[in-house]
Structures are given as C-alpha cells and as structure tokens.
Amino acid sequence: MLETLITSKTRIRILVKFFINVANDGYLRGLAEELNESTNSIRKELNNLLQAGYLEKEAINNKVIYKANAKHPLFTVLQKIVHQHIGIDAIVELILQRIGTIEKVVVIGDYANGKDSGIIEVVLIGKELDAKYIYNLASKIESRIKRKIKFYINDYQYGKGLVIYEAT
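and the corresponding structure tokens:
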C-alpha cells in the first residue's frame, strides 16, 4: 500500500523507524548500518523529511540525533499510515474480535524499535487465553498483513515494547 504512494524504499524504512514508535530515534551512521543503506541515501531522506517538518534533530555528544516530530500536524496521520502499512491495526482488530478478554497487546522486538524485519512479535496479556486458538489465528493474520507473526501469551517484560492496545 505505502509503496505505491512513496516510491523510495529508504524513505519508507525511515518512516517506519520513526513513526511506529515515537520513542525511537537514530543518528546517520547508526541508521545506515541498521537499514543496510549508504550514508548518502540516508542523509538525503533525513534531510527531505527534516525539511518537510516530519522529523526533528538534536545534537547530543557530537552526534545529530533524529526523531519524529510529534508536534507536526500530520504526526498522528503518518503514525496511523505506518501502523496500517505494517499491519498493526489489523492485528489488534482480529485479536479483539476473536479472542475476547484481552487486557493489553504489546509489540516487542524489531518492530517496537522501528525495524521492518518481517517478523512481528506480539505479547497478549489477558485471562484464560486459548493458546491453541491464538496460534491458529496467527496464520490468518499473516495472510492478511503479509508478514510473519509470533505470539507470546502473558510473557511480558514491563517497560519494553510498544503498547498498541490496553483495555480501559
């Protein structure tokens, strides 16, 4: 979906990095290594996104650190687009429709850190969750979002990960 709108794969990967989780940040060389891209292509995309106001930068210890500009008027729209691109919205929708008593859904691992690795790790917190059913649901979600998904049930290190749903 996003590839038809934005033709630069590097730009998409940078948007995923910064907009999947507002806490993610990075610097030029680190992003180049993480995304396996040249520093020139990363620099070009960072400058374009910075100029448009989608990113902000800060110099810390002789490094320029980039992060999403949460004050930008399109921040929530971009974050929603990135979540839809990755399939996070579909994961939450299918889980809540079919499982029931979910207290919290947390994305951990690469995707929580903004790395589009192809395997989304999801922790489900709840009472009396049917593990067999959840693992069968994984294949349905995978076919819908075109990414592998790995579920963990009630196995969560608090403070780590991206909370994508919490019961109120």
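(Above: one complete record from the training split.) The chain has two domains: 2-76, 87-166.
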